[in-house]
Design brief:
The chain is of the alpha/beta class. It has two domains: 2-196, Rossmann fold (3-Layer(aba) Sandwich); 199-320, N-(1-d-carboxylethyl)-l-norvaline Dehydrogenase, domain 2 (Orthogonal Bundle), CATH 1.10.1040.10. The protein contains 13 helices and ten strands. The strands form two sheets. It has a five-stranded parallel beta sheet with strand order 5-2-1-6-7, sandwiched between helices. Strands 3, 4, 8, 9 and 10 form a five-stranded mixed beta sheet that branches. Helix 7 (198-219) crosses helix 10 (258-268) and helix 9 (230-249) packs across helix 12 (287-301). The longest helix is centred in the middle third of the chain and has 22 residues, at 198-219. Pfam families: ApbA, ApbA_C. Its EC number is 1.1.1.169. It is an enzyme of class 1 (oxidoreductase). InterPro entries: 6-PGluconate_DH-like_C_sf (IPR008927), 6PGD_dom2 (IPR013328), ApbA (IPR003710), KPA_reductase (IPR013752), KPR-Related (IPR051402), KPR_N (IPR013332), NAD(P)-bd_dom_sf (IPR036291). Catalyzes the NADPH-dependent reduction of ketopantoate into pantoic acid.
Length: 331
Amino acid sequence: MKVAIVGAGAVGCLLAARLTRTPAGVTLIARARAAEAISHDGITMVTPLGRVSRVPVRVTDDALSAGTQDAVFLCVKAHALGGALDTLSSLMGPETAVVPMINGIPWWYPLGQPEPLESYRLKAVDPDGTLWRSIPSDRLVGAVTWVSVEADGVGRIRHVDDQRFVFGDPLGRRTAAVESVVELFGLAGFQARGSLDIRADIWTRLWGSLAFNPLSALTGATPGALCVDPGTRAVARTLMAEARAVAERLGITFTADIEARIAAAAGVGDFRTSMLQDMEAGKRLEVEAIVRSVAELGALVGVPTPTVETVAALVDMKARHRGSGTAGMAA
């Protein structure tokens, strides 16, 4: 099995380091500077138990040189997917599976859903429909990532907590592509499973991301601290309640309650969320996929989301005025 991982961020490096130890032929596709550093030094990974390992990986900045792949894992932020399309096209063959490892609501969410979703295109995550037109829907494998990992420089990561991944066909079918990906991740030592309702898994994961990513970016606090403080815990609870109302209107049934989900987030402790990491690094935040997509879906189905919209506006403002107080949002 030939596998390409597009993106050398924290999740991309984690997958490259772990999947390289399987029988699959793994290639990490990275920007030139990162590819050079990783080619020379490999990926340095600190495990949840504190062990440090250095893993040599095959890496290139030339996707064409990697050739046609059996599966491509898109490990870039949702707002960067459009910029990865040329790379993806260089890796695609007639049966290549495409696995977007993104946070939040994916652009393909309306696929095969009843109205009003079926004919709808999510403007928050695919404003001009480029992703919908460019990535064949029959190649998609939906993915939900339950892993806490931090970048510590180019090719250096700290795997903080959890190793769970969920994969599923967007149309709810049992497919060979999903089974192959689940098997591959199992061989890498991850806890991976297939799902016949990947959208329900997306909402369960999004519950925590929606609450704690923007609140951490606004306050600089970790989920552990946000869950302990009565004020921020209450805001998180309200955000999750609004999201639950939207999801339920779309036919999603939650198997856990809000307090249990908050308790799970508290258990992560001092982990810096991806949005907090991006805020501190001056990078663009995933507000559209994680926060604004929920408000957009709420408007579509007639469910008010005032707290979600307020938090999105506050995070946008903070991102625009971070640092010197006048700097714009970084790309």
